[in-house]
Amino acid sequence: METKTKDRGQWASSFGFVMAAAGAAVGLGNVWKFPYLAAKFGGGTFMLVYILMLLLLGLPVLITEIVLGRRGKSNPVGTYAKLSNNSPFWKFVGLVAIAVNFIVLSYYSVVGGWITRYLVQYIAGGFGTDTDIAMAFVKFITHPYMPLLWHAIFMGITIYIVAKGIAGGIEKASKVMMPLIYILFLILIVRTLTLPGALEGLKYYVVPDFSKLLGITFLMAMGQVFFSLNIGAGCTMTYASYLSDEENIPRMAAVIPTMDFLAAFLAGLVVIPAVFAFGLDLQAGPPLLFITMPHVFRQMPLGGLFGFIFFLLMLFAAVTSSISMLEVNTAFLVDNYGKDRVKAAIGAGLLIFLVGIPSSLAQGVFGWFKIGGLDFLSAMDFLASYILMPFGALMMSIFVVKRLGIDEAIKEATNNGKVHFAMARVWSFLIKYVVPVIIILVFLTSVGIIKI
User: Fold this and answer.
1) Cβ neighbours of residue 57 closer than 8 Å, sequence gap 6 or more
2) How far apart are the first and last CA of the chain?
3) Is the pLDDT of residue 105 over 70?
4) pLDDT digit string (tens) for 154-182?
5) Residue 75 backbone class (left: φ over 0; alpha: ψ -120 to 50; beta: rest)
6) Does residue 335 surpass a pLDDT of 90?
7) Is residue 5 part of a domain?
8) Residue 67 and residue 240: Cα distance in Å, rounded?
9) Element (H, E) at 202
10) Does residue 4 carry a pLDDT above 70?
11) What is the C-alpha to C-alpha distance for residues 447 and 452, in angstroms, rounded to an integer?
C-alpha cells in the first residue's frame, strides 16, 4: 500500500488539536460510567485513585500516541509501517487500531442515536407525569426500526463533520462543542446542587472514605482511564499526525487528560447529588442515562429545560468522540489508498452504519442472536474494549520502547531539544515498566482470569 498524504490537511491551531483530542476522550463513558463507578467504589476514594491512574497510565500513553502520530504523519497503519520499515507485524497492529474504531463506532453510533432521540423528546416537552419512563425506553430500543433510524441520523451527523476536513470540519466542530460541554455542565451543576438533599450526595462524592479502599478500586479506576482515553485505539495517534513539527507535545499531552478528568468530575457533580436528592438508584449503570436521569428531571422544577440541556451535552460528548473514530478510518483510506476525503468519509461511515445494524436492533428484531450469551451490541463492545484495545495499547508501548527507541521518542517530544520535557525520565520509566503491567492487569481482570 502506497502512502499518499496530499489531501491530509492540518490543524489550524494548537487549541483546535487540543479541543479535538480532548473531545475524542470526553464521551459517554465520562458522563454515565464515571459517576456510576464513583458511586459503587467509594465516591471520593475512587476519585483519588482515578487521578493516580490518570498520571501513571493516561498521561504517559497519551504522550506516546502523540509522539508516534506526529512522527509517522499518518494513520495507525501508515505510522507503524513507516516507523518499522514496513514490518508486516506492525502493519497488523495498525490494522487492529483501525478495526477497533470501526467496531466501536458501529455500536457507539447506536447509543448516539438513542441520545439524539431523547434530545428531540425534550425539545418536544419531555416525559409527561403519566409516562412510565422505564417502559418508554424499553419500547424504543425494542422497536423494529426506530433505533435504526436514529442510528442513521447520528451517523449522518458524524459523516458530515468528518467530510468537511480537519480544520474545516473536526476542528471547527470541536472548538464549538467542547467549550459548550463545560458550560452546560456548569448550568446543570448549579441546578442540581440547589436541590434539597443534594449536599449529602456531594459529600459522598468528594470526601474520601479510605475504609472503602480495596484492590478492585484500583483495577476499576485503571479500566476507566483505559477506556475513557481510548488507549490503544489510535484516535489520538491519528489526530497527532496532523500536527506541525513545532507544537509542544508535553504541554498538549498534559491538557488532554486534565480536560477528560474535568468532564468526568463535573458529570459526577451533576448526576450523584441529583440522584441522592430524589433517592433513586445511583448504581443503575447504563439505565442511568435513559431511565434514572429522566426521572430526576421530571421531579425538578423546569425539568424539561434541564433535561434538554443534559441530552444536548450528551450529544456533544458523543459526537466529539464519534468523529475521532470515523476520522481514523477516513485517514486510512486517504493515506493508504489515495481516496478523496469526502468519498472516504461517506464510504467508511456507510459501511460502519451497515455493520451497526445488528447492534441497533439487538434488543428487538435481532434479540435472538447471541454470541457467548451476549447480544450483538454487547459482544462487539466486549471484543473491542476487552480484547483489541488492550492488545493495541500494549503493542504501542512495546513499539515505542523496542522499535522506535526511547531516545528517539524524547527527541520527537522535545522537537530535537527545543521544547522542555520535565518528566522525560519519569515517562521513560512508566512506559517501559508500569504501563505494560497495568494494561495486562486490566486485560486479565476484564476477561475474568484474575478475580478480585
Assistant:
1) 222, 225, 226, 231, 434, 435, 438, 439
2) 45
3) yes
4) 999 999 999 999 999 999 999 999 999 99
5) beta
6) yes
7) no
8) 8
9) helix 198-206
10) no
11) 12
Cell of residue 238, nine digits: 491519528
Q: Is residue 3 part of a domain?
A: no
Cell numbers of 165, please? 476536513
3-state SS assignment for residue 75: coil
Contact 94, 261 (CB under 8 A): no
10 Å CB burial of residue 353 (0-12, 13-18, 19+) is buried
Range of the domain at 98: 14-446
Residue 244 grid cell: 506541525
In 3-state terms, the chain is what percent helix, strand and coil (to 5)?
Answer: 75, 0, 25
Encode burial over 367-404: b for 16+ CB neighbours within 10 A, e otherwise: eeeeeeeebbbbbbbbbbbbebbbbbbbbbbebbbebb
As a whole number of angstroms, the distance between CA 187 and CA 302 comes to 13
Nearest to 312 by CA among 192, 191, 180: 180
Indicate the pTM of the whole model.
Answer: 0.92
Residue 7 lies in a domain: no
CATH code, domain with 342: 1.20.1740
**Which position has the grid cell 425538578?**
300
Q: Are 18 and 178 in contact (CB under 8 A)?
A: no
CB 322 within 8 A of CB 105: yes
What pLDDT does 224 receive?
A: 84
Given a cut of 90, is residue 285 above it in pLDDT? Answer: no
Assigned C-alpha cell, 14? 494548537
Q: Say if strands 374-375 and 370-371 run parallel, antiparallel, or are unpaired.
A: antiparallel
- Extract the C-alpha cell encoding 89: 507485524
Does some domain include residue 47? yes
List beta partners, residue 374: 371
Distance CA 393, CA 231 (A): 6
> What pLDDT is attached to residue 136?
93
Q: Hey, is 78 helix, strand or coil?
A: helix
Q: Write the DSSP string, 137-166.
A: HHHHHTSSSHHHHHHHHHHHHHHHHHHT-I
Please, which residues have CB within 8 angstroms of residue 38's CB and are 6 or more apart in sequence?
Answer: 46, 47, 50, 205, 268, 272
- Structural domains counted in the chain: 1
Query: Residue 24 in contact with residue 229, Cβ under 8 Å?
Result: no
